[in-house]
Amino acid sequence: MSDFREFASRDALYEEAASRIASALTAAVSEHGKGHAALAGGSTPKPIYERMGRDGTVPWDKVVLTLTDERMAPPGDPASNEAMIRKALEGGPGENATLVPLFEETDGLPDQDIILLGMGTDGHFASLFPGAKELAEGLADKAPPVLKVVPDPLPAHAPFPRLSLSLPAILSAGEIIIAITGEEKRSVLDRAREDGPVEELPVRALLRSDHPNITFFWAP
C-alpha cells in the first residue's frame, strides 16, 4: 500500500525528501545507535543529498549509507552513483557519514531505516528493469539482497551492467520514498496503477506491496 504526495515545485520536493531522510536517520541513531539509509543514483536525487548533507542536526558519524543500485563502471567514472553521492555530501556535515559501496557478494546487509528510490520512464526502480533477464529473480520473495543486472538494451548514456538491491531487500526498510519529477513520469506512474503485469512496469511491485510506509513524491 502506498501514499502519494504532490509538491508545487521540485525545490519543495527536494527539501521534504531531505528532511524525511534526515529525521529517519536521527531517530534510528537515537533508538539503535546507528542509522542506515540506501540512496538512489540518477539526476533527480542529487539536490536531495546536497540539502540532506547540510543538516547539522544529524549525528552523521553514526550513519551508514549505501546505494540502492550501482553501475559497474571503472573507479572514478562519472557514471558511478557512489561518486555522485560523495560529491553531493562533500563540504557539509553529511560527509562524515560512512558510505559503503554496493557489492555483489553481500552478507549481512542490514535492514535500512529509510530508502530513497527513483523511477525511470520505463517503470524501473533501483536497477530492476523491464526486459532484463534477471528481473524475475530480483522481484522474487527469496531473492538475494543484491544481484547483478544487465539492462536490455544497455542505456546509451551508461552502458554498464548494474548491481541492484532486490525487492525483498528494499521492502525490509522501515520507510521507502520514491521521488519522481515531470509529467512523463507522472503518466507512467498513473499507468502503473492500472491492471497489468509487474514485468511490464516493475514499479507495480511497490504499488502492490503491503509495506506500511511507502510514499511517492512527485513534482512537475
From TrEMBL:
It holds the Pfam family Glucosamine_iso. Residues 9-207 form the Glucosamine/galactosamine-6-phosphate isomerase domain. It comes from the Bacteria. It catalyses: 6-phospho-D-glucono-1,5-lactone + H2O = 6-phospho-D-gluconate + H(+). Pathway: Carbohydrate degradation; pentose phosphate pathway; D-ribulose 5-phosphate from D-glucose 6-phosphate (oxidative stage): step 2/3. It is an enzyme of class 3 (hydrolase). Residues 35-54 are annotated as: Disordered. Its EC number is 3.1.1.31. Hydrolysis of 6-phosphogluconolactone to 6-phosphogluconate. Belongs to the glucosamine/galactosamine-6-phosphate isomerase family. 6-phosphogluconolactonase subfamily. This is 6-phosphogluconolactonase. It comes from Parvularcula lutaonensis.
